[in-house]
């Protein structure tokens, strides 16, 4: 039945793919004009719909650049409760910014974090408020072609590579596979940490990078659990029953990580970018109470934590203690130094060419 439905969707995929091809062709031939800015702009995005691990890659770039350059991030602010351009400040919430920008703002308060649907208009507004900005990171902007970034970083999930996918709704691609040709750098994310050289070579052959395109491989690296409210490290013994509560596109990698350290792990899943309500907290409380074991703990992601923070008082009333699992990326095959230098070279060469 599912296969039959997918066949029915295929003509719609062809139509959508054609529309995107025409749109891209218009930009490629300058029928539609993309705006360039007089500072380094790095776009990070993907060809597929969600779940590639983009956020920790953006955070890696922030850590890499922020101590050397005055760095800003610009996101659309998906599923936020506001519209238009907004620069994060001390009073900002996830509802105003969206969960990912709010996460950037909380973790990196020394950078500028802003949101805006029309990024072509948002960048001048950002530079008007923060003229000292030296580098802009465009979050989830691979298809946002009204801006021409100096560098395009394309991320593809190891287990759902764009080379084996199709355009929505038949598949998960936002545009045809050939869109990868716009990338300066391709990162295969969420790889097994022990990915072999042979498989690396096979994937490289499959992707077939163009001349000059860089190709890197990363895996997820989970950190130490910490209390959602205090930020202090949390010790969670192996015999603790865990309930993973999250609203993200693909909870499977985190679920597997928790199962590697704890025997009793349960999942309570919500839609991606979901804003929790009071009745959800009551459901969490009840389902946690129904789980086996004397020691129990709710685990969530950093992205979910910024949304759950909106209900801090109610969480404390219900006495729901939540531990947050941080995640970073790790470059495989010792290529972190190469990637970092690649980014620095772009930023520095841009400055040299525009002096």
From TrEMBL:
Pathways involved: Glycolipid biosynthesis; lipid IV(A) biosynthesis; lipid IV(A) from (3R)-3-hydroxytetradecanoyl-[acyl-carrier-protein] and UDP-N-acetyl-alpha-D-glucosamine: step 6/6
Keyword Nucleotide-binding found: yes
GO molecular function: ATP binding; lipid-A 4'-kinase activity
Biological process (GO), any one: lipid A biosynthetic process
Enzyme class: transferase
Pfam families: LpxK
Entry binding sites for ATP: 48-55
Domain of life: Bacteria
Record-listed E.C. numbers: 2.7.1.130
Keyword terms: ATP-binding, Kinase, Lipid A biosynthesis, Lipid biosynthesis, Lipid metabolism, Nucleotide-binding, Transferase
Reaction catalyzed: a lipid A disaccharide + ATP = a lipid IVA + ADP + H(+)
One Gene Ontology cellular component: plasma membrane
Family: Belongs to the LpxK family.
Biological role stated in the UniProt entry: Transfers the gamma-phosphate of ATP to the 4'-position of a tetraacyldisaccharide 1-phosphate intermediate (termed DS-1-P) to form tetraacyldisaccharide 1,4'-bis-phosphate (lipid IVA).
Identification of the protein by name: Tetraacyldisaccharide 4'-kinase
Organism: Chitinophaga oryziterrae
Organism placement in taxonomy: Bacteria, Pseudomonadati, Bacteroidota, Chitinophagia, Chitinophagales
């Amino acid at each position: 039945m599912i296969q039959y439905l997918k066949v029915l969707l295929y003509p719609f995929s062809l139509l959508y793919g054609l529309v995107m091809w025409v749109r891209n062709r218009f930009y490629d031939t300058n029928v539609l004009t993309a705006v360039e800015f007089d500072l380094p702009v790095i776009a990070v995005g993907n060809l597929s719909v969600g779940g590639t691990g983009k956020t920790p890659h953006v955070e890696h770039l922030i850590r890499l650049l922020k101590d050397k350059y005055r760095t800003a991030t610009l996101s659309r602010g998906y599923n936020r409760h506001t519209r238009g351009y907004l620069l994060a400040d001390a009073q900002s919430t996830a509802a105003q910014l969206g969960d990912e920008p709010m996460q950037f703002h909380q973790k990196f308060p020394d950078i500028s974090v802003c949101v805006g649907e029309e990024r072509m208009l948002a960048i001048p507004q950002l530079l008007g408020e923060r003229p000292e900005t030296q580098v802009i990171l465009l979050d989830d902007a691979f298809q946002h072609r009204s801006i021409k970034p100096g560098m395009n970083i394309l991320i593809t999930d190891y287990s759902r590579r764009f080379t084996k996918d199709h355009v929505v709704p038949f598949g998960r691609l936002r545009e045809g596979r050939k869109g990868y040709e716009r990338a300066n750098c391709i990162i295969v994310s969420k790889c097994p940490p022990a990915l072999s050289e042979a498989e690396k070579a096979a994937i490289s052959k499959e992707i077939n990078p163009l001349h000059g395109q860089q190709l890197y491989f990363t895996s997820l690296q989970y950190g130490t659990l910490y209390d959602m409210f205090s930020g202090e490290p949390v010790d969670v013994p192996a015999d603790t029953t865990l309930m993973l509560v999250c609203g993200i596109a693909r909870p499977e990698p985190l679920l597997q990580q928790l199962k590697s350290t704890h025997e009793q792990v349960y999942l309570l899943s919500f839609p991606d970018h979901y804003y929790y309500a009071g009745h959800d907290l009551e459901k969490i409380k009840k389902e946690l109470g129904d789980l086996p074991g004397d020691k129990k703990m709710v685990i969530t992601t950093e992205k979910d934590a910024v949304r759950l923070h909106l209900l801090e008082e109610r969480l404390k009333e219900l006495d729901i203690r939540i531990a947050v699992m941080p995640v970073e990326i790790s470059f495989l095959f010792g290529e972190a130094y190469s990637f970092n230098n690649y980014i620095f070279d772009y930023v520095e060469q841009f400055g040299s060419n525009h002096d």
